[in-house]
Specification:
This protein is an all-alpha fold. The protein is built from nine helices and no strands. Helices cover about 80% and strands about 0% of the residues. Helix 6 runs antiparallel to helix 7 and helix 7 runs antiparallel to helix 8. The chain is globular and about 50 Å long.
Length: about 190
């Protein structure tokens, strides 16, 4: 990392490791501060996204949910700028962000975020060639599972608001999507073994 410079990918990995070591030594505030400095110093967009993701996860693990929500929002903005709104990384960040919003009782915010994201996740799944009758490729599997996770989050937040019928609908949709991939071998999967 010294040869590559303080803003290199290697330095970013070390920053995350150092923060984790500080947390394990009982110095979580120092670890957080270390990660925040690394994010602020980063000028490479890919490295900045990686560090911001590590910061959000660090705060999440420490149960600093309000700070984690803020960190996930920044991460989401960075990812959308770099990768576009329909990347799997964006969908994963929305999944984490919506979970933390729910943990802090901010279900309406989570639902608003999911209402714009779930249709894009479904479109991404369909773009892999998958349909209700055809499982598609390995990419379809991973995209379909991410889509199912977002449906679960939507169901969680609707249920928390007492909208049980809607909640059950989204849980059932998520379960049907997962069952397609795990209930029996598909022709694509069967040919690979």
């Amino acid at each position: 990392a010294t040869r590559e410079g303080p803003k290199s990918y290697a330095a970013a990995i070390l920053a995350v490791d150092i923060a984790d070591l500080l947390r394990r030594e009982g110095r979580p505030a120092e670890g957080e501060a270390h990660l925040r400095r690394a994010v602020a110093a980063s000028t490479d967009p890919v490295i900045k996204i990686s560090l911001q993701s590590a910061l959000a996860s660090y705060l999440d693990d420490a149960q600093h949910l309000t700070d984690a929500i803020d960190a996930y929002r920044v991460l989401l903005d960075l990812q959308v700028q770099q990768e576009g709104p329909d990347s799997d990384d964006v969908f994963e960040t929305v999944e984490h962000l919506s979970w933390d919003l729910g943990q802090t009782g901010r279900h309406a915010e989570a639902l608003a975020l999911l209402e714009t994201t779930v249709p894009r996740a479904e479109a991404a799944w369909r773009a892999t060639g998958a349909t209700e009758a055809y499982n598609g490729t390995m990419e379809s599997l991973t995209t379909g599972l991410r889509y199912a996770n977002l449906l679960d989050r939507q169901a969680d937040h609707l249920g928390a608001q007492g909208k049980i019928t809607q909640s059950d609908f989204y849980f059932e949709a998520a379960n049907k999507l997962r069952t397609r991939y795990f209930s029996r071998p598909t022709p694509v999967v069967a040919r690979t073994y």
